[in-house]
C-alpha cells in the first residue's frame, strides 16, 4: 500500500464516481480502477460497492476513509514540520555560554531570537570555553558563546561582541589613594584570574596587556567564574584585569579603570562546528551579531 493508493481511495470516496475522481487525479479511469482493486486486495476487503448506476462505500470503506483522512492530515503536518525545520523556523537549539556573557549579551540574544522564532526551543548550558569546544565536537551543544580567541581548525567562530578590558581593585587597596594609578602600578600586585585551563587563549590575551607594560602578572589565585574573581578582589585578596562589562554591576565595591586606549580587547564569539552550520545556527549567529554589534 502506497500513499498514491490512499489518495486515490479518498478521491473516489469523496466523489463517489470513478470518472470524476480520475479527472481530479489526472489519471485514466482504468488506471484508477486498477489502483483501487490493488488496495482492496492488499487489505483483503471491499471498500466500495459498485453497480452501473452508483458507487457507495462499504462499512469497511467508511472506517478506512476516517483513518485515511487522519493519515493524510498527519502526513501534511509532518511535511510542513520538516520544511520549517529545514528552513530554521522550528526545532531545538542547544546553546553553551560562558557565565560572564550573561549580564547583557546572552539574555538579549535569547529574547530577540525567541521573539523572531517562537517555534524554536532553546536549551541553555553554562559551560566554560574549553568544555564548549568539547561539547561541539561530541554533539552535546549546537553552538556556543565563547571567550575569544578560539583557534581550533574544525570550528567556525563569528565575532559578536567586543569590549575593553578594565583594571579592577578593591576599594581598600592602597593604590586607590593615588591620584592617578595605572597599569604599571599593578606590577608586583597579586592577581586573581579567570583560570587559564578554562580559556587558555583568553588568558594569554589579558596577560599580554601586562607584558606589554613591562611585567608578568603574579597570579596567586585562578577561578572558574569571573564573578568569583570579582568577589575575591572586592575582599582585598588581589587585583584583576577583566572584561569591562562584568564589572558594571559591582562598581559600588570595586575601583575600576577601563583600559579604553588598549588595542587588545575582550571578545565573545559564537562557535559552531564548521561542517554543522544549520539554518537554525545561522539565524542564531545573525541575531547575536545584531544584538552584540561588535565595533571595529
Automatic annotation (TrEMBL):
Protein name, entry field: DNA-binding transcriptional LysR family regulator
Membrane spanning stretches: none
Family note: Belongs to the LysR transcriptional regulatory family.
A single GO cellular-component term on record: protein-DNA complex
GO molecular function terms noted in the UniProt entry: DNA binding; DNA-binding transcription factor activity
Keywords per UniProt: DNA-binding, Transcription, Transcription regulation
Record keyword DNA-binding present: yes
Source taxonomy: Bacteria, Pseudomonadati, Acidobacteriota, Terriglobia, Terriglobales
HTH lysR-type domain span: 1-58
Species the sequence originates in: Granulicella aggregans
InterPro entries listed in its UniProt record: LysR_HTH_N (IPR000847), LysR_subst-bd (IPR005119), WH-like_DNA-bd_sf (IPR036388), WH_DNA-bd_sf (IPR036390)
One Pfam entry name: HTH_1
Amino acid at each position: 500500500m502506497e500513499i498514491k493508493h490512499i489518495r486515490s481511495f479518498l478521491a473516489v470516496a469523496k466523489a463517489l464516481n470513478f470518472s470524476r475522481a480520475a479527472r481530479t487525479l489526472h489519471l485514466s479511469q482504468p488506471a484508477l480502477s486498477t489502483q483501487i482493486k490493488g488496495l482492496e486486495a492488499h487489505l483483503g476487503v471491499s471498500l466500495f460497492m459498485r453497480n452501473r448506476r452508483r458507487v457507495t462505500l462499504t462499512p469497511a470503506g467508511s472506517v478506512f476513509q476516517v483513518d485515511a483522512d487522519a493519515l493524510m492530515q498527519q502526513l501534511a503536518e509532518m511535511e510542513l514540520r520538516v520544511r520549517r525545520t529545514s528552513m530554521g523556523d522550528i526545532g531545538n537549539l542547544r546553546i553553551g555560554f560562558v557565565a560572564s556573557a550573561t549580564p547583557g549579551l546572552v539574555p538579549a540574544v535569547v529574547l530577540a531570537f525567541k521573539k523572531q522564532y517562537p517555534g524554536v526551543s532553546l536549551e541553555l548550558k553554562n559551560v566554560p570555553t574549553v568544555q564548549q569546544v568539547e561539547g561541539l565536537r561530541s554533539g552535546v551543544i549546537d553552538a556556543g558563546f565563547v571567550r575569544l580567541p578560539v583557534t581550533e581548525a574544525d570550528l567556525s567562530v563569528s565575532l559578536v561582541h567586543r569590549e575593553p578590558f578594565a583594571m579592577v581593585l578593591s576599594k581598600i587597596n592602597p593604590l586607590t589613594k593615588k591620584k592617578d594609578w595605572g597599569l604599571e602600578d599593578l606590577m608586583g600586585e597579586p592577581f586573581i584570574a579567570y583560570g587559564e585551563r578554562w580559556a587558555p587563549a583568553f588568558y594569554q590575551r589579558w596577560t599580554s596587556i601586562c607584558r606589554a607594560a613591562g611585567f608578568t602578572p603574579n597570579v596567586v589565585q585562578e577561578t572558574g567564574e569571573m564573578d568569583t574573581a570579582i568577589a575575591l578582589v572586592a575582599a582585598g585578596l588581589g587585583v584583576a584585569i577583566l572584561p569591562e562589562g562584568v564589572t558594571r554591576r559591582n562598581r559600588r565595591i570595586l575601583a575600576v579603570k577601563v583600559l579604553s586606549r588598549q588595542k587588545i580587547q575582550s571578545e565573545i564569539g559564537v562557535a559552531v562546528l564548521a561542517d554543522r552550520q544549520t539554518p537554525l545556527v545561522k539565524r542564531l549567529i545573525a541575531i547575536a551579531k545584531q544584538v552584540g554589534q561588535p565595533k571595529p
